[in-house]
Design a protein that fits this description.
The complex is a heterodimer of chains A (164) and B (290). Chain A has 164 residues and is α+β, with helices and mostly antiparallel strands. Chain A is built from 5 helices and 5 strands; from the N terminus they run ββαβββαααα. The chains are: A alpha+beta (164), B alpha+beta (290).
């Protein structure tokens, strides 16, 4: 079947088996390998992407289900010239060690900041509870998200979609 | 996972019912897919005959949450995030909101749906005890029939419901709770987030002149299916509210659970935890009712 959707801001079409997972579609058809497969059963969050702005596990979405939707992967987060403030702050706060959870972690945080400009620590924890990290530790990640929210609040960035 | 599976994406309820009226043996309904897709991937026996998935996500009337004069109606395919963020649910159904907030992760709550939580009648479905204390009914349709049943009756046994192969759950109806009711929900999992529940409890209670005027009690996970405790509810009513009553109720609740499940290897742990948590729920509700 043909699936039409918006991928990282561009309209795309894929010819694919209907029952293929969104995760495989992104990695195998579009070579967007920033989206990782961890557990494959919706527990680890490594495959997190945004579906119409909301974080979902791409291992639990089928290609046929995204027809007409907007998908954002980690490859679509940075601007043309600069990394996204979330990415910069992940680097600044040492929130990346092995990096396997990082794309999903950033997308969960991105979705949160899209809905709440000034999240509490509890809201940050809740937003990334579905993203398992086994080496960096969550503290640095939470601090990076907090700092980004603070920058957005201070007006350095108008919204989470603000790209440079 | 079978690659030959076909996926249909009907846009109206009539279309869904039309599809379900034939070839039911090879059809499986899918909404959030958090259960079905993992099941298919693991080649679960539940889906061995599935050749076609019917995706019900694109039918707006199955997603609506509405406040009618007497009841609140929640579309079967409303996601947990949609329910959690809905102002009607926040104002009128706090126990459901709390139950929903404990489910899975944000990613799961953004996809998983309320009817999907109970149509396979897993004992650990977190919304079930909350829906049971709210006396929820569900509407079920097929091409030739439309019926409404209490959720408790719909849930027949572990992984068994009344749902027939040509039927779809369309709505959950909840009578608007009177403001004098206070309640709470408790979930115990093996960790604090993204956990499958081991024990869930829901209580809804109305206190009047220091007596329990009405009370509804339900559990999940700790019983084979989510269930109410009618005998305990009757016993509790018209009693003076004090610490002793709550202790007696907690102890009797444990006895009733053992009556249903028999002693299990986990009873030594779960029983005192259920009793203690139930006691604390009652104390908390009492505090907030004063």
């Amino acid at each position: 079947m043909k699936v039409n959707f918006t991928l990282n801001g561009k309209k795309v079409q894929a010819e694919t088996a209907q029952s293929i997972r969104l995760l495989d579609l992104l990695r195998d058809e579009f070579n967007l390998t920033g989206t990782k497969e961890g557990c494959g059963i919706g527990e680890c969050g490594a495959c997190t992407v945004l579906l119409n702005g909301y974080a979902v596990n791409s291992c639990l979405v089928l290609a046929a289900q995204i027809d007409g939707s907007e998908i954002l992967t980690i490859e679509g987060v940075a601007g043309e010239k600069e990394l996204h403030p979330l990415q910069k702050n992940f680097l600044k706060f040492g929130a990346v060690q092995c990096g396997f959870c990082t794309p999903g972690m950033i997308l969960s945080a991105y979705s949160l900041l899209g809905q709440k400009q000034d999240p509490t620590e509890e809201e940050i924890k809740d937003a990334i509870a579905g993203n398992l990290c086994r080496c960096t530790g969550y503290k640095q990640i939470i601090e990076a998200v907090k700092e980004t929210a603070k920058e957005m609040h201070a007006g350095s960035y108008t919204s989470v979609n603000d790209k440079r | 996972m079978k690659t030959s599976i076909e996926i249909l994406t009907p846009k109206t309820l009539t279309e869904i019912l039309g599809i379900l009226s034939e070839r039911q043996e090879i059809l499986t309904l899918i909404a959030g897919g958090t259960d079905v897709i993992t099941g298919l991937k693991q080649e679960s026996k539940r889906f061995k005959d599935t050749e076609v998935l019917v995706d019900v996500n694109h039918v707006p009337e199955l997603k609506e949450i509405k406040h009618m004069p007497e009841k609140i109606t929640i579309g079967a395919a409303a996601t947990f995030s949609e329910i959690y963020n809905n102002s009607i649910v926040s104002n009128e159904l706090p126990i459901l909101k709390k139950a929903v907030s404990t489910i899975g992760s944000m990613q799961i709550r953004n996809r998983a749906t309320i009817a999907g939580n109970f149509v396979n009648n897993a004992p650990c479905a977190d919304t079930v005890p909350a829906l049971l204390v709210y006396n929820a009914t569900i509407e079920i349709e097929s091409m030739n029939s439309k019926r409404e049943t209490y959720l408790q009756e719909f849930l027949q046994g572990p992984y068994k419901t009344q749902l027939k192969k040509d039927e779809v759950v369309t709505k959950i109806n909840i009578p608007v709770p009177t403001k004098s009711f206070t309640g709470d929900f408790y979930k115990l999992g093996r960790r604090r987030a993204v956990a499958i529940s081991r024990i869930t409890l829901a209580v809804l209670m109305e206190l009047k002149e220091n007596k329990i005027n009405k009370i509804r009690i339900a559990s999940g996970s700790v019983t084979p299916i989510g269930t109410r405790f009618p005998e305990l509810e009757i016993f509790a009513m018209e009693n003076d509210v004090n610490d002793n009553l709550f202790k007696t109720l907690a102890s009797r609740m444990g006895e009733e659970i053992i009556k249903i499940t028999g002693l299990r290897w986990s009873s030594a742990y779960k029983l005192p935890v259920v009793q203690q948590m139930f006691y604390q729920l009652l104390k908390g509700i009492e505090r907030r009712s004063l």
